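Run log // design_07
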């Protein structure tokens, strides 16, 4: 096992986060947390103990822009991405900046694109460095 996610988050892109927040508030009564600022701004809503939904600024591509993202509670995203590559997974997006943390994306054996996320205060690797 490469990692045990602590939650699953559906991540969408939105052209206008304020409009999106109003829409989902008016339709479902969702009260999003507004996190980050500027280009890192996002909307976040916990829907259950281990399930959430987020909207981040970007260009939506319906049918392709939804990203199921697994949160790594202890960090180690670089280790997981390396392990996925060793298992033959296609790394779609290497470890990079994400709102309030780091993210990456990969393709599963059926070509579904899935994401990984960890908070900014977690280490990129859990492997001990040996001299």
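design_07 sequence
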């Amino acid at each position: 096992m490469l990692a045990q996610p602590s939650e699953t988050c559906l991540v969408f892109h939105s052209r206008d986060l304020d409009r999106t927040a109003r829409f989902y508030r008016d339709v479902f009564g969702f009260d999003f947390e507004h996190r980050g600022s500027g280009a890192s701004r996002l909307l976040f809503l916990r829907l259950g103990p281990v399930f959430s939904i987020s909207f981040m600024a970007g260009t939506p591509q319906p049918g392709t822009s939804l990203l199921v993202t697994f949160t790594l509670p202890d960090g180690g995203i670089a280790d997981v991405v390396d392990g996925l590559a060793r298992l033959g997974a296609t790394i779609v997006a290497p470890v990079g900046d994400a709102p309030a943390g780091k993210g990456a994306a990969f393709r599963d054996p059926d070509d579904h694109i899935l994401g990984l996320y960890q908070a900014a205060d977690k280490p990129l690797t859990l492997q001990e460095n040996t001299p």
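Residues 17-28 form the longest helix (12 residues).
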